[in-house]
Specification:
With 104 residues, the chain is α+β, with helices and mostly antiparallel strands. It folds into 2 domains: 56 residues, no CATH class; 38 residues. Strands 2-1-3 form a 3-stranded antiparallel beta sheet, with no helix packed on it. It is elongated, with a radius of gyration of 32 Å.
Length: 104
């Protein structure tokens, strides 16, 4: 019986702690259409709505999907970089040869 009581107290304390992480945000729109978000309600001449948020859903990154990598595109990109590096090195070799011939 004592364990059941202890378990119930623990469960209630967890529920109260979880509730304390809930956030309340107020969204208000003034006469000019400017939207304002605040943790306190704005004056009565604005159209104000209460929005409830939980702590776990406040991050922007919660809803962003993981990036997908297309192996074909990555291979093309790597090949293009390799070709550009080869062109640049060939260009430098030609410049060096020209400069050495010119100094002779």
């Amino acid at each position: 019986m004592k364990r059941a009581r202890l378990f119930c107290c623990f469960l209630l304390s967890v529920l109260f702690v979880a509730q304390s992480f809930a956030l309340t945000v107020y969204r208000s729109v003034d006469k000019k259409g400017v939207v304002t978000y605040s943790d306190k309600p704005v004056s009565s001449n604005h159209d104000t709505k209460e929005i409830s948020l939980s702590q776990s859903r406040t991050s922007f990154y919660d809803n962003v999907p993981a990036p997908t990598i297309d192996p074909v595109k990555e291979a093309k990109k790597a090949n293009l970089l390799k070709n550009n590096a080869m062109r640049a090195s060939n260009y430098l070799v030609h410049i060096a040869a020209y400069m050495s011939l010119r100094n002779v």
